[in-house]
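Incident log, support desk, overnight shift.

02:14 A customer reports that sequence design results differ from what the structure should imply. Their input is reproduced verbatim below. On-call engineer (initials T.W.) acknowledged and began investigating.
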């Protein structure tokens, strides 16, 4: 399997510095800063990117698990809310809430919940983040 590469560069001190985050695929190269991370400034931040990774990974894991169980999802949509909180040892990610909805013909709610919970447990990003509490709200759409 390939190794994926992302890069970050920071110039200056923490509150007045700035940086750029980019990925090897050149899909994005974007600024980040103290205000974009801890306030409401423009640019991205590591937690937002972590959330995007987790949402994408979970959506794919759920689609795969549904397919393995004999169901063909029409759509899976996931939002990840990454909570960054001040803790005793400094700032930390305290929780990630996954909010997903899916259109899956022929599945009942109980089976869907079972498969969604398994996808959360086996998603590679969820497994990498085992030190963080991960919540899941999974809904079937009509």
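02:41 Re-run completed on a clean worker. Output:
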């Amino acid at each position: 399997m390939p190794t994926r590469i992302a890069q970050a560069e920071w110039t200056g001190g923490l509150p007045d510095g700035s940086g750029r985050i980019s990925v090897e695929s050149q899909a994005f190269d974007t600024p980040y800063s103290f205000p974009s991370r801890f306030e409401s400034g423009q640019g991205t931040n590591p937690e937002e990117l972590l959330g995007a990774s987790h949402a994408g990974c979970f959506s794919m894991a759920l689609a795969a698990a549904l397919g393995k169980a004999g169901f063909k999802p029409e759509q899976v949509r996931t939002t990840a809310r990454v909570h960054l909180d001040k803790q005793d040892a400094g700032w930390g990610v305290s929780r990630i809430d996954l909010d997903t909805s899916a259109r899956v013909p022929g599945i009942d709610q109980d089976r869907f919940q079972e498969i969604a919970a398994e996808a959360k447990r086996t998603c590679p990003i969820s497994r990498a983040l085992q030190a963080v509490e991960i919540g899941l709200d999974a809904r079937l759409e009509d």
